[in-house]
Amino acid sequence: MPIRTRHEPVMKIRELTKSFGNNKVLTGVSFDVYENDVISIIGASGSGKSTLLRCINLLEMPTSGEIVYRHQQVLTRQNKINHYRSRVGMVFQSFNLFHNMTVLDNCMVGQIKVLKRTRKEARFRALDYLDKVGMAPYVKARPRQLSGGQQQRVAIARALAMDPDILLFDEPTSALDPEAVGGILTVMHDLAQEDVTMLVVTHEMAFARDVSTAVFFMYNGVIHEQGEPHGI
User: Fold this and answer.
1) Domain range spanning residue 81?
2) Closest Cα partner for 156 from 117, 196, 195?
């Protein structure tokens, strides 16, 4: 497990809840995220893991609670949500690439529309991250021409190109063929070694043990147990 130096938290989650009708999915989640943390979130299906990530990224609005990002209350600053989302990237289990765009354009569009980068700058950064994840030869391909593992590599490059402070991974290997899983875990391991701050919902216990700075075990919508990987 990497050794990290801690200062002020990048993010604080306090008593976060989420209900869908009468179904309480998150019932009071609290924790801090520090720079360079790699937090693996484990637990059975239905324990609230993916909903937690979606609430942190505001793809789902929490029912109650607080998200504090760099000393700013997120949920009370509606005009800053797009900026916040650009700082908290997300990689989905289903990739969520734009199928009408090339690999390169998928990695450029967010930079241009959200970060207001020039096409030249967006292209440079997209190519850099596509090379990092081993997808440089496929810049002109469209997602349907790629395997699941290749699409997930593109999704990771797209998220990295936005220069997020925190990167959220929602079961990034669960939709992949077994032979593609190892490659994605290697990319994520490399990111951890480069001190990328990550929250990872995963069933890959070896990854959680070897790469994480902390592991959260979720049960019935709360963090039931948390600690260093060897202690969970």
Assistant:
1) 11-231
2) 196
